[in-house]
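Ops channel
N.P.: pipeline sanity check, posting one input/output pair.
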């Protein structure tokens, strides 16, 4: 039985003809095996959840522009293709040489900029549970994770053979389902360990350290995701996560590239879009349900984020389904 596609609606983007990056001979062999594994477990366009629940296989046969959405913490590795990801106006590009990590939930948009039917975009995504990072640190003790000034909650880092090997071993388990309950958690811990030991691993490390300001920003992000329909009172949010108002603003923007209010707006507008597209709600009803009291304000902010007012945007999206 084929896996179930869970990819959100997407619109086409212009193709990119730039050459693919080069890898060492050893890593090229690993990349080729990873590509073949993904191709087998993603038999058509889309994102497919596997028997290992946090693990997804992704395939596209042509360049695509994805719908903006809130993406939970995850590791993304490309076997074939190239992808641009935008966060708050900042561009991150990853490919077979470089993996992408989201350490916190972030509203992003992505564009597959290299893919053809003969050479499809092939990638894997492993969702990251911050509790697993916390447990790993607690059990492993001091790990000599590099300490640097905190940065964005999303980063791109050069891939290495050890990380590729662990990822390939995890995906191989899909061919031996009886081994998944015992071995998948062990290999996943190894993957997280290797991410923590990377040069940018401190960004994952910080989300698990309770007395760290980045961890408190993570708690603010979690609160906003759970209460985005409610009016945002920044003083109350700062008290909730035990930060001053000025520190919350500064640290929140450092991690997410936007203010708490801008983050809340993205959550509201993306949920309203989902409600209209999936549940058939009218624009005014969707806006009201996510916390907007003024239909005109909802329409203005929706147009600013998605490039068109609700009715025109939905009509455009439905043509791509």
């Amino acid at each position: 039985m084929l896996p179930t596609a869970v990819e959100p609606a997407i619109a086409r983007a212009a193709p990119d003809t730039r050459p693919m990056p080069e890898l060492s001979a050893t890593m090229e062999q690993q990349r080729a095996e990873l590509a073949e594994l993904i191709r087998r477990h993603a038999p058509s366009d889309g994102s497919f959840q596997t028997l290992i629940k946090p693990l997804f296989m992704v395939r596209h046969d042509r360049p695509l522009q994805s719908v903006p959405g809130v993406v939970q913490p995850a590791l993304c590795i490309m076997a074939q293709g190239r992808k641009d990801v935008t966060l708050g106006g900042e561009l991150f590009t990853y490919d077979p040489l470089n993996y992408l990590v989201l350490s916190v939930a972030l509203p992003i948009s992505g564009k597959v900029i290299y893919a053809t039917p003969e050479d499809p975009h092939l990638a894997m995504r492993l969702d990251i549970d911050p509790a697993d990072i916390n447990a790993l640190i607690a059990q492993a003790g001091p790990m000599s994770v590099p300490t640097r000034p905190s940065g964005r909650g999303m980063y791109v880092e050069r891939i290495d053979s050890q990380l590729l090997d662990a990822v390939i071993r995890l995906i191989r388990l899909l061919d031996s389902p009886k081994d998944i309950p015992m071995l998948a958690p062990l290999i996943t811990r190894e993957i997280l360990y290797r991410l923590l030991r990377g040069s940018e691993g401190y960004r994952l490390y910080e989300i698990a350290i309770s007395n760290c300001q980045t961890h408190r920003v993570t708690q603010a992000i979690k609160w906003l995701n759970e209460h985005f329909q409610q009016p945002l009172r920044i003083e109350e949010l700062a008290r909730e996560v035990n930060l001053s108002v000025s520190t919350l603003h500064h640290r929140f923007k450092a991690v997410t590239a936007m203010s708490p209010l801008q983050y809340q707006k993205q959550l509201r507008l993306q949920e309203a879009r989902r409600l209209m597209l999936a549940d058939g709600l009218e624009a005014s009803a969707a806006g009201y349900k996510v916390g907007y009291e003024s239909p005109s304000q909802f329409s203005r902010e929706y147009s600013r984020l998605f490039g068109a007012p609700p009715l025109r945007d939905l009509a455009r999206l439905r043509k791509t389904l």
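N.P.: looks fine end to end. The CA atoms of residues 47 and 58 lie 4 Å apart.
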